[in-house]
Amino acid sequence: GEDVEQSLFLSVREGDSSVINCTYTDSSSTYLYWYKQEPGAGLQLLTYIFSNMDMKQDQRLTVLLNKKDKHLSLRIADTQTGDSAIYFCAESILNGQNFVFGPGTRLSVLP
Amino acid sequence: GAGVSQSPSNKVTEKGKDVELRCDPISGHTALYWYRQSLGQGLEFLIYFQGNSAPDKSGLPSDRFSAERTGGSVSTLTIQRTQQEDSAVYLCASSGTGGEKLFFGSGTQLSVL
After folding, report:
1. Contact status of A82 with chain B (Cβ, < 8 Å)
2. Phi and psi of B14, rounded to 5°?
3. Pairwise CB contact (< 8 Å): B99 & A41
4. Per the CB < 8 Å rule, is A43 touching B91?
5. What is the pLDDT of residue B1?
């Protein structure tokens, strides 16, 4: 069955880079996603990558995909206090009919 | 609308009562999902609607949970005879043609006393 795993907590200093890691099991994943959830809010789509890509960069965000190892990472450059949130990794299979979410990584940015 | 809208944002109810949670997806989105997020937990899939097809109810935890989607737009999640373990944030999401991006509402925080 499908399973997505993430470490639950990460703390970084303001201005440092953050790297949040994720592993998934379903090799038929079509897209892989990173969502951000701030307190009391729903999930906000940060970025996503098609499964035949290795890397995607969007301003301070860099997504790396190692399809062989089924490993996805999100790097946030120059992490700010406003980046403190829970980050969810997710995969979709069957062209978006089925989304599987990881448990979320709580990122704490220390001043 | 501009985004996925859920109401109410907060609901406090007594054990044993029925509750209805509403979701208004982004206009034109054909797919609609309900998820449950318990305190400190990830997202638990509940139910998925796609157009006029029969919904995928495989995630509903018990027969006390049901959902409808009228006219292919607004959806209502109903929980009958609520229990304390039903306390959670209920999130609705929708996606459009292509289906590769989910857009979430801000959720309904349900508290069962």
Report:
1. no
2. -95, 145
3. no
4. yes
5. 52
Query: From CA A14, how far away is CA A37, in angstroms rounded?
Result: 19
User: Does A56 contact chain B (CB < 8 Å)?
Assistant: no
Query: Residue A48 is nearest to which of B93, B101, B106, comparing CB atoms?
Result: B101
pLDDT digits (tens, 9 = 90+) for A20-57: 999 998 878 788 999 999 988 889 999 999 988 999 99
Task: Give tens-digit pLDDT for B81-98.
Answer: 999 999 999 999 999 877
Listing DSSP states for B55-69 in one string gives: PB-TT--STTEEEEE
Whether A89 contacts A102, CB under 8 Å: yes
Residue of B nearest to A4 (CA): B42
Q: What share of chain A is helix, strand, coil (3-state, %, to 5)?
A: 5, 60, 35
User: To which residue do tokens 């120059």 refer?
Assistant: A78
